[in-house]
Design a protein that fits this description.
By secondary structure, the chain is an alpha/beta fold. It folds into two domains: 239 residues, Alpha-Beta Plaits (2-Layer Sandwich); 54 residues, no CATH class. It contains nine helices and nine strands. Strand 8, helix 9 and strand 9 form a beta-alpha-beta unit. Helix 2 packs antiparallel against helix 3 and helix 4 crosses helix 6. The longest helix is centred in the first third of the chain and has 31 residues. The radius of gyration is 22 Å and the shape is globular.
């Protein structure tokens, strides 16, 4: 017990130090910034994303327990509904007990609207299924990172499908008992029925069934669908084997499907989490591609800040840069057209 208390104290000290360092870094960046901080992010049609959202207090609110079948129908139907409404293409998805990962292409530049509707419907419907009424999602900002290159899109798809294994839950990703697109091929569809929970049963105006389609991303055009699918699962397999070897070396075991399904939905995990690490906006392994993307975003932020300052000064006809989303949809400002 004394050893555990010592570890807890050291962990708390490390978290406080990380928090202090983070604040110091933020102050340094603020001092070097040429303009007031821009919290907005550009939303450009055709952008590829890895979208992640975590449950409140990391609780297992989406655990595939004895209500597994209802939960999968609910999540799959809601995802299919929102993807169809806002024109996003799904390339990979997994719903773990307390968070989800989606790899998508935002074909129409509607990611914020998609997230708003999807997260709201999941929160309300799963709460109804669980018989609870409290906060569902973590108050932390959602993690949406742009995927700049073909290699990075494939890597994040593999990361998504292998996530149940890398989280030390099941030995192979396809054995995850919750919702995952692991077994779907590109172009395949999975049909989900409208859940009776929350969606008002037969009186709902929503479709009785919806198809969740797995769309091939526009990457590695020289590869056929079958070749790209094989390459993806080769990388998934490598991730799974690497994790298995690490677990064997440390003498540890995966939790397993049965124990996963016996977990309580109102319990958080015991493992600590880093709440003070960086929150990247761009995911890219190639240094120069990453720098170019960050510079592009920096130029956009500068243009946005200039337009925002002019708008605040009363210049209502000022034009915001292409990719401005919230101010266009909620305030009605002018936005530049996409560059040729």
């Amino acid at each position: 017990m004394a050893d555990q208390a010592g570890v807890s104290r050291r962990s708390a000290a490390a978290l406080r130090e990380a928090s202090d360092n983070r604040r110091a870094d933020n102050r340094a960046r603020a001092g070097a910034r040429e303009h007031e901080r821009v919290r907005a992010r550009p939303v450009w049609p055709g952008t590829r994303y890895l979208v992640t959202r975590r449950c409140h207090d990391r609780s297992f609110l989406m655990v595939p327990d004895d209500k597994r079948r209802e939960l999968i129908q609910l999540l799959g139907y809601t995802l299919a509904l929102c993807l169809k409404r806002y024109g996003l293409q799904l390339h990979a998805a997994v719903f773990l007990s307390n968070h989800y990962h989606l790899v998508v292409t935002d074909t129409r530049g509607q990611l914020p609207a998609f997230k708003s509707m999807f997260n709201a419907l999941v929160a309300r419907s799963v709460n109804a299924l669980r018989g609870r009424h409290d906060t569902f999602w973590s108050g932390d900002a959602t993690c949406d990172v742009t995927l700049e290159s073909d290699d990075r899109v494939l890597s994040r798809m593999a990361y998504t499908l292998a996530n149940p294994t890398e989280a030390e839950l099941v030995k192979w990703g396809h054995r995850w008992p919750g919702l995952t697109t692991y077994k779907l091929a590109f172009g395949a569809k999975k049909t989900f029925r409208r859940p009776k929970t929350f969606f008002d049963g037969d009186n709902s105006r929503l479709p009785a069934t919806l198809d969740l389609e797995l769309v091939r991303p526009e990457i590695f055009s020289k590869l056929t669908d079958e070749e790209l699918h094989a390459r993806l699962h080769e990388e998934v397999h490598l991730r799974e084997v690497e994790k298995q070897e690490a677990m064997d070396k440390e003498g540890r075991r995966f939790l397993g499907e049965k124990k996963v399904q016996r977990q309580r939905w109102n319990r958080p995990p015991r493992t600590p989490t880093d709440r003070f690490g960086p929150r990247p906006k761009v995911s890219e392994g190639n240094k120069w591609v990453r720098i170019a993307a960050l510079q592009r975003n920096k130029h956009w932020e500068r243009a946005y800040a200039e337009a925002r300052d002019a708008f605040r000064a009363g210049q209502r006809e000022v034009e915001f840069p292409h990719g401005t989303w919230w101010m266009q949809h909620h305030v009605g400002v002018k936005v530049a057209t996409a560059p040729a």
